[in-house]
Amino acid sequence: MKENHLIGITPAHNNPDFKLMRELGVKWVRQGYPFPFADENGTLSQSFINADRQIEKFRAEGFEILCSFTGPGSMRYVPSEGKTVYSRAVPEYLGDPSEKRYHELLFDAAAFLGEYTKGRVEWWQIANEPDIDIFYGPLSEQENINYLMNAANGIRKANPGAKCGINLGYINDYARMLLREIYAVSGSPFAYLGIDGYMGSWQHGGPHSWRAYIDETAKLSGKPVIINEWGFSSLQWGEKYTDIERTNHYNQDVCRQKYWQIIWGKGHTPEEQARYISECLPVFAEHPDVIGNFFFRWSDTESCWQCGEADCPAECAWGCVDSAQKPKPAYYALKDGIKYYF
User: How far is Cα 282 from Cα 2, in angstroms, rounded to an integer?
Assistant: First the structure.
């Protein structure tokens, strides 16, 4: 049994069933803050206030927080426009990421957040999957590097004990570049490396693929590893593609075709999701470089954040409970594995 391991989950739910979560055995949740300020005067945004209340709600229920600091933006479905577009996650007053002012104001906001959460939050995820273009968007490589470094250094200026890391979407040449530029440098502000992986869904492979992924990223970063996201979709397909307007949504095949072309085992079913979990947990428990893992996610969703549609395998069926919070086979596989290995 592995001790001192961060056992967690991404709730992604405003009102999760805390009793069920505690019975699952998780001790940590991965929960985040948006950019704190609404304007140049330092007015706290309502979304920030709401996020803070949510984090305090989890803490009051006995959960520790792996807290995410917002990234620059993301490519997502915007209901008001009826299509998927890149949505900026920082206020317009910061200016353009090519400008020095943008990064100075980002640093100041991160320092505020480090001070604001001192004593409540020690573990931080800086941005989200910054090696993937749907998240770094229009930022150049250097602008992306500056964003990550300024956010981490800002938090640590106010809270030197903070443990910051990024979470890679997967290992690719861009990810390797980030590890060279922000981990393998003198004075790196990063204490751990987060890695995400969906081998058998977004990437080829399966539970067995985790070992090589962990080995490479631990070696390149020189840091302990937390699996910030891992999971397996339990929905193989939605309705057949008939609406030409779907091409206006995010241009990736799963959203457009409503079908997983990458398959592990017998395909994306609730039963195979449970088996996937059962085969991943011993890999995480046995690997000496892994200090935590956060299952993605607590519940299914009623629509896909990438394309906005309710039948989309891409984002609707990752939960260990369904959208009504009824346990799926995955819940029991996760519960049993946590009890046995951690």
Answer: 10
Taking residue 290's Cβ as centre, other Cβ atoms within 10 Å add up to 21
Distances (CA, A) of 283 to 17, 170, 213, 253, 289: 28, 17, 11, 30, 11
Say which CATH number the domain at 307 has: 3.20.20.80
**Could you tell me if 238 and 258 are in contact, meaning their C-beta atoms sit under 8 angstroms apart?**
yes
pLDDT (0 to 100) of residue 12: 83
For residue 222, the enclosing domain spans: 6-341
- In total, the chain counts a number of residues equal to 342
Determine if the pTM surpasses 0.70. yes
Which helix H or strand E contains 227, and what residues bound it?
strand 225-230
pLDDT computed for residue 252 by the predictor? 78
For tokens 């095949």, name the residue. Answer: 253
Average pLDDT of the chain, as a whole number:
94
Name the stretches of the chain with pLDDT < 70.
240-251
Count of the separate structural domains present in the chain: 1
The answer to whether residue 327 is domain-embedded is yes
Phi, psi of 88 (to 5 degrees): -70, 140
Q: What share of the chain is helix, strand, coil (3-state, %, to 5)?
A: 40, 20, 45
Nearest of 132, 122, 125 to residue 193 by alpha carbon: 125
Question: At which residue do the structure tokens 């809270």 appear?
Answer: 159
Distance CA 84, CA 244 (A): 14
Say how far apart CA 163 and CA 88 lie, in whole Å.
26
134 contacts: CB under 8 Å, gap ≥ 6? 74, 75, 250
Q: Which residues of 186-208 are buried (b: 16+ CB within 10 A; e: fewer)?
A: eebbbbbbbbbbbbbbbbebbbe
* Residue 1 forms part of a structural domain: no
Res 82: pLDDT: 80
